[in-house]
Design goal:
265 residues, 10 helices, globular
């Protein structure tokens, strides 16, 4: 089992620098098995959401694990259909009930949505939940610079995290968000760090992977870490779950990083 490094959020809480995603893992045996394998392997950050329809299974795997609850950083998310102050509070309670927890480590607004007023009300609800200690940290997901600027103007606290899609093929598109978040000490989590598999056959990537003696997936995850983000790879395959976390015994050179950045062009 690996000992995963952590970094500090703007709340002073610490978060593992790699996580395990559960999007598209079916409720029941599939998600329970995958999360259990991930925890056994050494992952300590588990990411779910109401809309994934697997919070119950994630909670079951965490509760059944021999790893103490306080050592596992669990994230879930609020869907825009529940935005508004009261709607957000109710949806949070429902998520807690499905997970079977008294608190979550991170609660995110899943998407900005189209209604500025409702998303701002939802954020106020998250601030209240955080104040009560039932969400140790709060943040956003899929927020653009424009959405982040809106939030920072109206909020007494900045988000701890902005979770966005992040991999070499969209590096240039997402770089302004990455730079903005670094400026305001908002940690970026990278979902789909393996590009949905689209980048895995890139000649640039496979050449680097062969030279490093690593898999293309490991190189992509390492690229995300070296850009200061927290990658959240997902797999239901035990071998890949184990492989994806073995990214702390090598580094990519500045030239390799640049060549992977260039895939976005």
């Amino acid at each position: 089992m690996l000992d995963i490094p952590t970094i500090k959020l703007n709340t002073e809480a610490r978060i593992p620098i790699i996580g395990f995603g559960t999007w598209n893992l079916a409720e029941g045996d599939e998600v329970v098995g995958a999360v259990s394998d991930a925890l056994t392997t050494g992952y300590r950050l588990i990411d779910t959401a109401k809309v994934y329809s697997n919070e119950h299974g994630v909670g079951e795997a965490v509760r059944k694990s021999s790893v103490p609850r306080e050592e596992i950083f669990v994230t879930t998310k609020l869907w825009p259909g529940d935005y508004g102050y009261e709607g957000a509070l109710k949806a949070f309670e429902d998520s807690l009930q499905r997970l079977g927890f008294e608190y979550v480590d991170l609660y995110l607004l899943h998407w900005p949505g189209k209604d500025s007023g409702k998303r701002q009300e939802a954020w106020q609800a998250l601030l209240q939940i955080h104040k009560e200690g039932r969400a140790k940290n709060i943040g956003v997901s899929n927020y653009s610079v424009e959405h982040l600027e809106e939030l920072l103007k109206s909020s007494e606290k900045p988000p701890a995290v902005n979770q966005i899609e992040f991999h070499p093929y969209i590096y240039e598109e997402q770089r302004p968000i990455l730079e903005f978040c670094k400026k305001y000490k908002v940690v970026v989590e990278a979902y789909s760090p393996l590009s949905g598999g689209h980048a895995l056959n890139s000649i640039t990537l496979t050449d680097i992977a062969e030279r490093m003696g690593k898999s293309p997936a490991q190189v992509l995850i390492r690229w995300a870490i070296q850009h200061g983000t927290i990658p959240i790879p997902k797999s239901a395959t035990p071998e890949r779950i184990k492989s994806n976390i073995k990214v702390f015994d090598f580094s990519l050179s500045p030239a390799d990083m640049n060549n992977l950045d260039e895939l976005s062009r």
